[in-house]
Amino acid sequence: MSKQNLSRRKIVAANWKMNLDIDEAAEWLGEVGPALKDDDCDVFVFPSSVMIGDLMDMYEGDMLVFGAQNCSHKDSGAYTGEVSAKQLASVGIELVILGHSECREHFGETNEIIKQKLQQAVQNELMPIFCCGEPLEVRNKNEQKNYVKQQLEESLFGFSAAAITDIIIAYEPIWAIGTGLNATPEQAQEMHAFIRAEIAAKYSNEIAQQIRILYGGSCKPTNAKELFACADVDGGLIGGASLNPKDFLAIIRAL
Ligand code: PGA
Prior knowledge:
By secondary structure, the chain is an alpha/beta fold. The protein has a single domain, classed as Aldolase class I (TIM Barrel), CATH 3.20.20. It has twelve helices and eight strands. The chain has an eight-stranded parallel β-barrel, surrounded by five helices. α1 links the parallel β1 and β2. The radius of gyration is 17 Å and the shape is globular. The protein binds 2-phosphoglycolic acid.
């Protein structure tokens, strides 16, 4: 996988969350794998960690890149149940989702913890997808920009310019995740442009133009095309709709 994003190659990423057992996952792979041809985008899949190795062994193509849905903020030690970035890298995993709103909500991940997870990922040469996005009550008060700005500042903006270009960002408004209620293209574009402008202000416009910013939140075949058409939307992080191979392939085709 190239780490050079100079042309901001688009991404469609499947976040399976805690879904699919190994047989169902193998079936998914059997359907999606051969259907990926020369799609002009990167296609990532994030299964549960326990089965990534098996799926990597099963997959015969070179279009799909496998990643983990989380990693520990610690290097190693007495952290029962955790998986370190180093362990993921040691089995050939190249990507990791960090800061997903479900981990923030259910496991109490703070901006500080997510910063430490990002550091672990970067040190171990995993490419992180850093998730940010506001809950409904923040959106209702029209404070989403300040909210996301704080997430960026507290987790991301301590990284060097060299490190930041290898981090992918996913803007995922929490009110849109798994609700069937997606952001409109205007809402998505406004927030993506805002995030890019913040990166430009912190680093440089050149760096901001290289960073890929994905949209996530009820992205499906019926709305993917209009969301992906937005100038600052570089693809999608797909939850529910990624479980169905046909829907996932239709979203890829929407690019
Ligand atoms: P969703 O999830 O597509 O089911 O809304 C997106 C995500 O959580 O990454």
